[in-house]
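Sequence in, structure out.
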Amino acid sequence: MSFLSLLQDSPVFFASCTAILGLMVGSFLNVVIYRLPEMMKRSWLQQCAELQGEAVKASSPYNLFTPRSTCPQCGHKITAWENIPVISYLMLRGRCSACHARISPRYPAVEALTALISGFIAWHYGYGFVAIAALIFVWALIALAVIDLNTQLLPDDITLPLLWIGLLVNINHGFTDIQSAVIGAVAGYLSLWSIYWCFKLISGKEGMGYGDFKLLAAIGAWLGWHMLPVVILLSSLVGAFVGIGLILAAKLHRNIPIPFGPYLVGGAFIALFWGEELVNTYLGLL
């Protein structure tokens, strides 16, 4: 029996292979999470210097592939055996092999989370185009959620391609029909845009960033307009509970902004897997 036949005929084998792939993708997502904000910062600084007429110094290449990953404390170059997802972290006991500086547990957490969700997608959707599309969707959302947690940024380099890919996926009814996807993209953007301006006119403050608009537009493009109420309701409820909990625990000042992107991502995950059931249950209750 060929490898492809095993993937098609054995849900357990397909889910297991996809989970292993998720581990490797999670390792790459850690690179994206760490480097993309720094790449944006360097680009902004370069643009500012050019606008001010300053001479821009030539710098060494810095992107998702160059230079080689190093320890941020001592500059030790990460070897292949030190870069095995999750396993290397456990073998190194969470510390750099050279300077013994602590390695953030975020790295194995992202790898493990990506593997678990990837395996579940394979089990939930089975072998086929929809599973592959769902993997791309979820991998991008994981990167966006963690970047937003760390920097309160939702990079256009991820949100905008994610929006267009969602529309392309739904041309042939991937997760919804193309009409619902287009309306979802527009409604997703305008819904948060409207809330943003209402809040700003009333309070004089900005309640959220433009990246949140684009992220919800991308989610609408993937899942359709009928899933947006589910995503917004779930993300708002979770965000409110977490924010109130942190304030009551005196770990967060009222004026400190809370990134909304991770909650939108959480709502999108739930809608992706159980959205139809939630909508049907709600309509049945009505």
